[in-house]
Amino acid sequence: MGTTDISPAAQAGATAHLPQLHEPRNPGQPLDLDVIAAQRVNTSAVERRCATLPGRRSVKKDHQAAWLLKAITMIDLTTLAGDDTPGRVRRLCAKAAHPVRADILEALGMGPITTGAVCVYHEMVETAVEALEGTGIPVAAVSTGFPAGLSPFPLRVKEIGESVKAGAQEIDIVISRRHVLTGDWQALYDEMRAYREACGEAHVKAILATGELGSLRNVARASQVCMMAGADFIKTSTGKESVNATLPVSLVMMRAIRDYHRRTGYRIGYKPAGGISKAKDALVHLALLKEELGNHWLSPHLFRFGASSLLGDIERQLEHHVTGRYSAAWRHPLG
Ligand SMILES: O=C[C@H](O)COP(=O)(O)O
């Protein structure tokens, strides 16, 4: 197996992982309906820009390996299946703590790395917290009646508290899509504020379920409302909608984050989730992130991929980089 050392700077980037929440936390702002009304999206310009991105931005060889290692540190390694078991969650946690085979890391001249977090349903939080003890990897719980968000409101709020009590440090809530579709921004704001409050010290990611919001303009408006109501991250999808994370949606949400930062000084994290399963998709997302939000966001405290199978493909690409051969996908289970 050949050795192909990655530059110290790239290594430093790849190993920067949680906990490192240096950012002052977004306290939220009063709901500003003028800002919401002013949101505009030129859909065809957004689509054109996204269509040309993969051709304009491609990284090769050592640079690609360094970016892929970096991507791993920003994955919320996820299992959200009805047949999840404690055994599966423990295996997922072991994978999160050692996401790449030691011989591959060694050949790349890299020390140990971990994923950004492990993301599970509430029932699996305790198991994950126990399995990750001593690793520094936080557990994220999906909450508030995930994925539809249609259980009784008091139960949705209570569910957050239960997951925090069980040890989740991050809570991924789902918003009520109907508030967006009916333009009831006050209701969306109030809901999000209640969720943020219930999270306490745990960081809250607002899942917009963008595939169900009807338009990119609605995506921009819902992003602003959730940030005003105190979201730490905005996230595209549950992974259960028929359309999940797309590049146009990412572009719109990243620009919403940039706009919020300009207006308030607070940096909000971004999490594309659902359907991102190939290393090349991750690279395109990172290129877009760097172009739209800059290097500051290239860190697990401001960017995550929500993904259940992306890690497996990245590992295959890294193995190919080191050995010149692709291994079968089944050799990289769980992520
Ligand atoms: O939040 C994470 C998503 O549910 C994962 O979706 P995926 O299984 O399509 O990668």
Task: Provide a descriptive summary of the structure in words.
It comes from Celeribacter indicus. One of its GO terms (cellular component) is cytoplasm. The protein is an alpha/beta fold and 335 residues long. It is 47% helix and 10% strand. It has helices at residues 8-15, 33-37, 43-56, 61-73, 86-97, 102-107, 125-131, 153-165, 177-181, 185-199, 216-228, 247-264, 279-293, 310-323, and strands at 75-78, 117-120, 139-143, 170-174, 203-207, 233-235, 269-271, 305-307. An eight-stranded parallel beta sheet has the order 7-6-5-4-3-2-1-8.
Question: Can you tag this structure with a few keywords?
Answer:
335 residues; alpha/beta; TIM Barrel; eight-stranded parallel sheet; 14 helices; 8 strands
CATH superfamily: Aldolase class I
SS elements, strand count = 8
Estimate the helix proportion, in percent.
Answer: 40-55%
The secondary-structure element order is HHHHEHHEHEHEHHEHEHEHEH
GO molecular function, one term: deoxyribose-phosphate aldolase activity
Pathway: Carbohydrate degradation; 2-deoxy-D-ribose 1-phosphate degradation; D-glyceraldehyde 3-phosphate and acetaldehyde from 2-deoxy-alpha-D-ribose 1-phosphate: step 2/2
Enzyme class: lyase
GO cellular component, one term: cytoplasm
